[in-house]
Amino acid sequence: MLSAFVIVFRESLEAALIVSIVMAASRGIAGRSRAVAAGVACGLAGAALLAAFAGEVAGLFAGIGTEMFNSVALILAVVMLGWHHIWMGRHGAELASQSRLVGNDVREGAKPLSALAIICAVAVLREGSETVLFLYGVSVDGSTGTSGMLSGGLLGIVGATALGLLIYFGLLRIPLRHIFKVTGVFLVLIAAGLAAQAASLLVQAGVLPPIGYDVWDTSAILPQDSAVGFLLHILVGYVDRPMGIQVLVYAVTLVVILVLSHWASTPRPGRPVAVRG
Question: In the prediction, which pLDDT does 276 show?
Answer without folding.
Answer: 42
